[in-house]
Amino acid sequence: MSIIEITNLRKSYGDLTVLKGIDLKVEKGERVVIVGPSGTGKSTLLRCVNQIEEATTGRIVVNGMVMTDTKTNLNQARSEIGMVFQQFNLFPHLTVLENVVLALRKVRKIAKKQAQDIAMQKLKEVGLSDKIDEYPNQLSGGQKQRVAIARALAMEPKVMLFDEPTSALDPEMMDEVLEIIKKLAEKQMTMMIVTHEMSFAREVGTRMIFLEGGKIVADGAPQEVMEKTDSERLKRFFR
Amino acid sequence: MNLQQIFLEGNRIQFLWYGLEITLLITIFATLIGLVAGLILALMRQSAFAPFAKVWKNFRPISLLARIYITVIRGTPALVQLLIFYYVIFGSAPEMSKLWVAVLAFGFNSAAYVAEIIRGGIESIDKGQMEAARSLGLSYWQAMRLVILPQVMRRSLPAMTNEFVTLLKDSSIVGWIGMNDLMRGADNIRFQTGTAFESLFAVALIYLVLTSLFSWGMGKLERSLDVDN
Ligand SMILES: Nc1ncnc2c1ncn2[C@@H]1O[C@H](COP(=O)(O)OP(=O)(O)O)[C@@H](O)[C@H]1O
Ligand SMILES: [Mg+2]
To answer: Is the Cβ–Cβ distance between A20 and A40 less than 8 Å?
Structure first.
């Protein structure tokens, strides 16, 4: 079974239908890059995967758990799906270490000392061992995003969702974040990544999906999707 | 009459000290009730519980109840509420001490204002905070308790300070149910001495000192907690 299975997903906000029937299977270890013009529902698709946005209709299965079933323990299911946001969404009232420790303690119920050890390890992996006692507002954008990645990774997720992880960053800070994602890719982490960074997309993605008007209009190897010339709109987008 | 005659003869200044004690007791206990009840009320108001969602989407009874309570309390004078508490709600319980009637009346009054402050605070927190918390697997209540409310409390400190100051000043109407608070203490001196200026200015000064001290202390606390901007 695929690690993510989306079947006929539709999502509407009132009269506005954003996702108009998405079918998508992601295999373990695949790195799916999602591209497309803004406002087409890329974020919405990602947010439906862990159901922080409720699907209107359709079925979503992640790690064998049916996310769209009301009987599923969504908190448990979400704790195995890491998500990284464009705006970082660090908790400003907690230190860097506390940001990473929080869910380990409260969701995984891991003892304080052990949770701190895990958090330190993850922060070390993103190169922020020296920032553990700082508050988010004392960090640069790139550092914030690395903390956010460490926070997600501390839960040992089986899938990672990235929603434009570098869009809010100054160009000189993008690389430090992209490098970490590339390292994750080397470790065969299953990922869905929304991005506008085409060279990064080509490098890290094993597969590219082009979303437009709430539908998947192209799906294949990144090179292939980017070179496909049968759609004028695609061409315009990649130019 | 000079000041010494007005305040010290017959130990009249005792009216003020005793009144001050009553005023502070009412304010402190009512504030505590206001905070707890206000928080509960604010969370009720946020409640999305909709038992008939299929046929009647916008009917959220818990939220509605909270909204009605808040509207009624904020839309009627505190004095009317105090008198209703005293004469109607506890009218049949004469053994109930007036202090507790006043504490409850002001506490439940303050709760409505506190609830609005907290609601405003919750709405001012970026939606991404709740989403990030939920994406990590925290439940709604965990996210509220551990992520949202701590930020709300910090942000609403100035408004809460205001609310406490208002409560302290508003408690001056408890003379209406025969309590001898600070205000009534000044009135007693005024009646006994036939002078108005001294006693009224004395009591005004005491209120002013109390509210200023409190605002100053809260201001210090605010600055020491100011980590997120
Ligand atoms: N909570 C919401 N309420 C109403 N409309 C929304 C909401 N979230 C997103 N939308 C709309 O859905 C569409 C797709 O949004 P989004 O998924 O963020 O697009 P993308 O990430 O591709 O830029 C946009 O038109 C946006 O305005
Ligand atoms: Mg988006």
So the answer is: no
Q: Which ligand 1 atom is nearest residue A211's CA?
A: 22
Under 8 Å CB-to-CB from B82, ≥6 apart: which residues? B102, B105, B106, B173, B174, B176, B177
Cα R_g (chain B), whole angstroms: 22
pLDDT 10s digits, A37-75: 999 999 999 999 999 999 999 999 999 999 999 999 999
Give the Å distance between the CA of A42 and the centre of ligand 1. Answer: 8
Cross-chain Cβ contact B136/A137 below 8 Å? no
Domain ranges, ordered by start, for chain B: 24-181
Residue A4 CB contacts under 8 Å (≥ 6 apart), including other chains: A24, A25, A26, A49, A60, A61, A62, A159, A190, A192
Tell which one of A9, A12, A13 to mutate to probe ligand 1, the residue whose CB is within 8 A of the most ligand atoms.
A13
* Fold category of B24-181 in CATH: MetI-like fold (1.10.3720)
Phi-psi region of B173 (alpha: psi -120 to 50; beta: other; left: phi over 0): alpha
